[in-house]
Amino acid sequence: MLIDHIPVLGLRVRTSRLELRFPSGDELATLAELAAEGIHEPDMMPFGNPWSELPGPKLSRRVIQQHWKRQSEIKPDSWALNLVVFVDGDPVGVQEVEADDFAIQRQVTSESWLGLRYQGRGIGTEMRAAMLHLAFAGLGAEEAVSTGYLHNPASLTVSRKLGYAENGMGRGISRGKVALEQHFRLTREAWEQHRTVDATLEGVEPCLAFLGAEKE
Question: Which residues does the UniProt record annotate as the domain N-acetyltransferase (predicted)?
Answer without folding.
Answer: 17-164
